[in-house]
Amino acid sequence: MAEIESPTDYIATISGVTACLDAISKWQATNGIKTEQQFFSAVWFRGNGRVHPIPLRPGVYRDEFKKIAEHMHGKDLETKRLNTELRMLDEFRAAGAGFLNSADAVDVYFTAQHYGMPTRLLDWTTNPLAALFFAVENKHLHGENGELFVMDANKVLPDDSGAKYKIWGIVGIRNPYTAAAIGESFWIWHKRQPLVIPVLPDNRPGRIGQQNSRFTLHMHNAPPAQNKTLAKMKIPADSKPRILEDLHRLNVNEFTTYNDLDHLSKGIRRAWGID
Q1: Which residue among 36, 168, 191, 244 has its CA within the 20 to 30 Å range from the CA of 73?
Q2: Helices of type H across 104-206
Q3: What is the pLDDT of residues 84-112, one digit of tens each?
Q4: Which tens digit of pLDDT belongs to each residue from 241-271?
Q5: For residue 6, is it within any domain?
Q6: What residues pair up with 121 in beta bridges, in sequence order?
Q7: How many domains does the chain have?
Q8: Contacts of 61 (CB under 8 A, 6+ apart)
């Protein structure tokens, strides 16, 4: 299954924003992550509101999707999963044509991810406070522990990927490898070695820019990816309310994270004590 393999142990337990930033600094020192000499950071974060048995897999590889895919035609589960994705994306593109700004497969795919369709994209961010917010924002999960992940995204690809597959480090969404990988979900077949790819999206107004969003793209038939720099931190359930308050004081909230009127309303209601 095309997930990123999660480490077994936690490198820290996070009780507040300061503890989070301190743990990240220690992780950087341990992994020799120096000040980066490029505009886009290769240090990516992901926050989960609960602890999952397999935490780093996208929607197409989660249990709910698997239950549906098992009833689809195909020679094996991986083929059934792809065929289910193909059918669902066909419906999204056909029914949503009037709302889509582009017919390009890559643009449609990222739009589908944005609006909650199950895809092969897994969300990350270069902003640790945004990732921390995602891990604590849902009050319905305040009775459960959460997790914060951090990694050097350049290390997601195999060490020999450049020489062997002609793909190096983080790639843009217009990279031919990215386009070919996404094309498989739209009946566009290009022969590419199946991998888990770190992808830099176009920076556009809205959530992607606001959240400093990044993605890993988990290709059809890709083996599990390993990243020696990947680490996780525990967020105890009883620390979540305090962390949420700390983030609010730092102006990290529903509106500044999602940048739409729905979340502005939600943030105002929360501030006034109305759920």
Answers
A1: 191
A2: 105-114, 128-136, 161-165, 176-183
A3: 999 999 999 999 999 998 999 999 999 99
A4: 999 999 999 999 999 999 889 999 988 998 8
A5: no
A6: 217
A7: 1
A8: 1, 2, 3, 54, 81, 120, 218
- Looking at the chain, the whole-number percentage of residues with pLDDT higher than 70 is 99
Q: How far apart are CA 113 and CA 275, in angstroms?
A: 27
Closest listed residue to residue 55, CA positions, set 119, 146, 170: 146
Alpha-carbon gap, residue 60 to 81, rounded angstroms: 7
Q: Whole domain around residue 244: which residue ranges?
A: 12-271
Cα–Cα distances in Å, from 198 out to 123, 164, 192, 205, 218?
10, 17, 15, 21, 9
Determine, yes or no, domain membership for 78. Answer: yes
d(CA 232, CA 4): 12
* pLDDT single digits (tens) 219-239: 999 999 999 999 999 999 999
Does residue 37 register a pLDDT over 80?
A: no
- Spell out the residues 6+ positions from residue 2 whose beta carbon is closer than 8 angstroms to its own: 57, 61, 120, 194, 196, 218, 219, 220, 221, 222, 223, 224, 225
Q: Which residue in 272, 23, 262 sits closest to 131, CA to CA?
A: 23
Q: What count of other Cβ atoms lies within 10 Å of the Cβ of residue 98? A: 5
Distance of CA 42 to the CA centre of its chain: 14
CB 242 within 8 A of CB 15: yes
| Residue 245 tokens, joined | 């308050």
Residue 196 φ/ψ, nearest 5 degrees: -95, 120
Give the sheet arrangement for strand 171-172, strand by strand: 12-13, 231-235, 146-152, 43-48, 121-125, 213-218, 196-200, 171-172
Q: pLDDT category, 275, cuts 50, 70, 90?
A: confident
> Is residue 109 domain-resident?
yes
